UniProtKB/TrEMBL annotation:
Identification of the protein by name: XRE family transcriptional regulator
InterPro entries: Cro/C1-type_HTH (IPR001387), Lambda_DNA-bd_dom_sf (IPR010982)
Naturally occurring in which organism (per UniProt): Parvularcula marina
Gene3D superfamilies, A to Z: lambda repressor-like DNA-binding domains
One Pfam family of this chain: HTH_3
Gene Ontology MF terms in the entry: DNA binding
Record-annotated HTH cro/C1-type domain positions: 17-71
Amino acid sequence: MDALPDDQLPNSIGGRIRAARKSLGLNQGGLAARLGVSQPTVANWEADVHNPRQLMLAKLSEALEVSLGWLAGGNSTERLSPDHPAATYLARGVTHVPVLPPETLTDRQSLKSRTAHCTAIDYVPVSLDSTSLFGVMLDPGPYQALFPGTPLFIFDFERIAPEPDLFALLQTEDGPVLHGWTTSLAPLPSGEVLGTLTAAIRYF
């Protein structure tokens, strides 16, 4: 959906949901079916009876084909000077990565089909230009010293070839495990490679 001029911008989340839904030719029931909620729930959002929670906002932005920033806050007329220190960073695209429960990880095909979004428990924004990322809370196992605390691991399911000094997520008989690819590219334990580690974030 194209950004609206400021004087035509709905001034509430409900108004923006309604505008985006209508631009796709959907009725409230059709949007509800995409999200797995009831039609009255969509009606309540659009009437500003209550706002969707953060996780549902992310799902709405995908279903309505609009940015999460627009849906949550609308357009802004403010623009940073190109010389501002934050301008380059803010110009980078932001990807909203689904955080998946470890027990729902089965194979790469389910990740590639985007059905994994149905089981997402949260989304985290990252400034990485990729559409093949997913996050998972995982016990680092023998790599605890490298990843202290409770890290959220971000993996790329399109990167599955061994890469020196990086880590892979393997689906084994005992569930998903973190595996370090060494410089010698030692043989992998038995199991399907679900993706290569892209980032590890302290998650609270």
